[in-house]
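ok so i was messing around last nite and threw this chain in just to see what happens. nothing serious, just curious
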Amino acid sequence: MRTISPGVLVKKEVAESVKRKLIEANALNSELRPKAVNDYVIFPIKEESVEFVKRMGLKVVYEEFEYRHKVKTYKEIVDVPDHLRKYLPTSYDQIGDIVLIKIPNELREYARNIGEAILKTYKSVKSVYWDLGVKGLYRVRKLIHLAGERRTETIHREYGMRFKVDISKVYVSPRLAEEHKKFSEYVSEGDVVFDMFSGYGPFSIFAARKGAFVYATDINPYAIHYLYESARLNKVQDNVLAFVSDCRKISQSLKADHVVMNFPHHSIDFLEHALKTIRDRGIIHMYV
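result:
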């Protein structure tokens, strides 16, 4: 793990004496490793000691230094005042190589510092976004870019399955991965599945992978687009037929062994349509 920090550039023959002076002045940044460049040594110093060190007549430069120990969490390196560290988020969602994190009000002005610290700490992360919650008809997250690449499309993985998603256009929660897998355990080859609120298609793709044929609907056209993208990625495109549609418009024309209702807080409102679709001894999987 590396970071940019101020440092003192000195010739090797005087390096030890300068180091002692920096330690005495409590200016040396002991968390970072000094580095050698040709006939010089660069000692990392604390940001708040820069002006003091300049008054000592030493040359200050900004360089990339390695940390002495492996950083395990972004909290170890994030730049926020000590009295606010207790508010640092302990969890976040990683979708592919993108992190979504909720920032408490107490840390709003340090949001970008948090994003940069996450980016530096975890090699698998390429972008960090501030998650402001789910908004609008399509239930997608409102996002603010904090650090890294300015893109919202990525490949999300669950139990060996790959999903192409755009987190600004479809709702994705890696916390539901276990539910997607658990649902597929009820599905057998040859079953018919009706995914009433498919989103980007995790329930649909898991079922199709088991050999079921899936009808999927969602009113969000981006969701159906990414469902088909993921069906191709997982080589189940022949087992999926998806519609940009209100599920109620086609429920009466289908008969299914499994009906998936993943529309939190509203699934119950559509139960009568699921009952018209389900076959005898079929299963309705309702998430409320």
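not much to say yet. The radius of gyration is 27 Å.
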